[in-house]
């Protein structure tokens, strides 16, 4: 893979409708892996991403949903990138913990 996104919402990086079925509270992460491809395939993929069309079945995309993921890198990379910031080193182990964080708001009754 050239790169991947691991998201828990419908969008990321300015793209608002990457995974239309994604839900922030469904207990799953959506993995979108981008395989090397030529200009025509890349143009088609970007067009679908910009217009909110489903692209998860394209041949140059690896897509799946999971609640547990281990990621390693074959090339020597010092660290991952988390939302534009330096993230943890590889290998990564990522788990979903549904309803794990309690959010307090004005008027909440905890």
Write the layout of secondary structure elements.
Elements: E1 3-7, E2 29-34, H1 39-51, E3 61-66, E4 68-71, E5 81-82, E6 85-86, E7 92-95
State the gist of this model.
This protein has 110 residues and is α+β, with helices and mostly antiparallel strands. Helix content is 12%, strand content 26%.
Q: Could you characterize what this model shows?
A:
The chain is an alpha+beta fold. The protein contains one helix and seven strands. It has one helix spanning about 40-50, and strands at about 5, 30-35, 60-65, 70, 80, 85, 90-95. The strands form three sheets. The chain has a three-stranded antiparallel sheet, with no helix packed on it. It has a two-stranded antiparallel sheet with strand order 4-7. A hairpin with a 2-residue loop joins β5 and β6 (about 85). The protein is globular and about 55 Å long. It starts with a strand and ends in a 15-residue tail after the last strand.
Gap from first CA to last CA = 44 Å
Total number of helices: 1
Strand order of the largest sheet: 1-2-3
Oligomeric nature of the chains: single chain
The sequence of SSEs as H and E is EEHEEEEE
Strand residues, percent: 25-35%
Q: Would you report the number of β strands?
A: 7
Strand pairing plus helix content: what structural class? Answer: alpha+beta
Shape by Cα distribution: globular
> Largest sheet at a glance?
3 strands, antiparallel
Rg result:
16 Å
């Amino acid at each position: 893979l050239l790169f991947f996104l691991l998201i828990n919402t419908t969008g990321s990086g300015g793209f608002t409708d990457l995974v239309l079925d994604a839900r922030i509270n469904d207990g799953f992460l959506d993995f979108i892996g981008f395989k090397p491809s030529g200009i025509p395939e890349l143009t088609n993929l970007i067009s679908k991403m910009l217009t909110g069309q489903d692209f998860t079945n394209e041949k140059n995309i690896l897509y799946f949903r999971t609640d547990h993921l281990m990621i390693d890198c074959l090339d020597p990379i010092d660290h991952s990138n988390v939302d534009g910031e330096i993230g943890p080193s590889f290998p990564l182990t990522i788990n979903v913990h549904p309803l794990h964080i309690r959010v307090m708001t004005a008027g909440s009754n905890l």
